[in-house]
Amino acid sequence: MRLGKWGVIGGLVLAFLVGAAALVSAAETLDLVFLVDESGSLCYSGPTPQPPGNVAVEVDGFISALNEVIAPWVSAGGTARIAVVSFGRTVIQRIGLTDVATNKAAIVAALNAIKSSPTCGSTNLGGAVNLARVLLDDAPADSKRVINLATNGAATTGPSFQNACTDARDAGYEIWAIGIGDADAAALQSCTANPARYFYVATVAEFASAEETKLAAIAPTPPPPGPGPGPGPGPTPTPTDGNGITVDYKGTLLDAVADLLDLTNDLLNEARKSLFESLVKVKDWKVEAQATLETCLKYQPAEGYLPCAGKAAFLVGSADKEKQTTFKGLTTVHESLQDLQAEVTDLIMEIEQASLDEEIGQTIADALTKKTVKDEKGNDRPYAPLLVLMVLLSEKNIYLVEMDKLLEQANEYESEALAWLTTAMTTCGNNLDCQKKAIKEALGPLKSSIKLIRQVEKYVWAIKDNIKTIKAWLCGFQQLVIRAPLILPGEGERAFICPWCLPPLVAAAAELRTFSQPGVIRFAAFGGAVQGMRVRVFNLSGRAVFDSGMVAGNMLSWRTYGVANGVYLYIIEATTAAGTTQSEVRKVAVVR
Known about the structure:
The protein is α+β, with helices and mostly antiparallel strands. The protein has helices at about 40-45, 55-75, 100-115, 125-135, 160-170, 185-190, 205-220, 245-300, 305-355, 360-370, 385-425, 430-485, and strands at about 1-5, 30-35, 80-85, 90-100, 145-150, 175-180, 200, 245, 370-375, 380, 485-490, 495, 510-515, 520-525, 530-540, 545, 550, 555-560, 565-575, 580, 585-590. The termini are close together.
């Protein structure tokens, strides 16, 4: 069993941190500098304690977060530029600010280069932050400029780390950090100057998850820009009685949106494989057939036109067979969209019922399912995430119907082209003029078929982009649910599972600690004449899995036999003569 370091406010490594920072709107630009630790403590650790060691794991975490968080954010309408700086005994600019939309591959290559040539040695944190500040100085003043730091140690060389952090913050740049293992938590928290911007992971293996969560807090997925059904989920409502969700129902909603996101990811994969990849083959074979016939007509090979006609007929026939895969893919995607639409419809009805059952407040229920806004003409348009999804899903079905029509028309042109090619190969015999005329006649419908396939290809691109938009709106739904406060039934209080909205701590006279041994996690409070304590443990969906109630004394245990492996969240309260001290949300991993 591994425990996160006690005393780290940002130790919560999961999606509850989304929304901790000011949201980046779709119209804003995010300029982000990755500061990657390649010092000796990471270089010479890991399964094989030799370079690159755990530096490779750290780099892979940055790449995963780029792909899973920033790239979808850009696809959904955001603009992001990323620079990469590595630091060990020296500080190296691996790549300057580079646009993610047009050159993500170059950013990934710059990150991967760190794995092949880490500098190792000491830890020059101050030099890294100073270089990041210089890079951000060249970014537009109206962009959101962020230094994104990861390290497992303390500053051991170079200029003053804290002075560098102060200079960067004074310049208006945000600093976000992840401390790994034995990192200097106090120095990193001081550098960020904001508890919500500091994260902690016990091992580098947990880094990727933490980095994805951190980037999601820096740049939550925005809704699509420009014309559309609505501008997106918008800011989190101020918590009121109508905004709360019970513990169990929050878990139910998060499970539901996770299932919908899985369906959407499957849909994207299906669209890519059975539609896009299949359609590219169809188009390429037809284009090659066209080029074969045109070359034949231009140069009239000595062996005559029959070999050209035969090759073109083979290519068109192959395209026709592959198009059957496209048709099947079209049917599969259509059915998947209908399934997704049915799931969203069911979820809307379930939320309506849950609001009647007082499992979710009416305000947040309407924000998820009913809310509309006025457009520039004064007309209502969807604004609630699930309402927008219903509109988007209906549009996708229209696209699919149009694609089906275009493919059928392409089939007719292909049949005509094949008929002429067959005439060239059979009816014409050895008559070269007849063969030439038949090939010319085949070119017309073949070109028309290619034109239609290219129209279908544009629809496929639009569908892929719109499925990503659906995913963005699902993420908007997820964020609204995550940021809604919990209502604990029977207690008459709200439990906020996020460090930025915890009630203020009463003068903390008690020091709270955690210990572990096989099958048991012990929680203790020392100092200040502790009179009693209470521990609540939640899973990552926000569901309570353990509540000790207020217990007399300064120590209690959570027996984890029968508890599933995984990461859990907990809050400790300790009562002293000075009042009640409540910890921020912490994490603990149950591992056997």
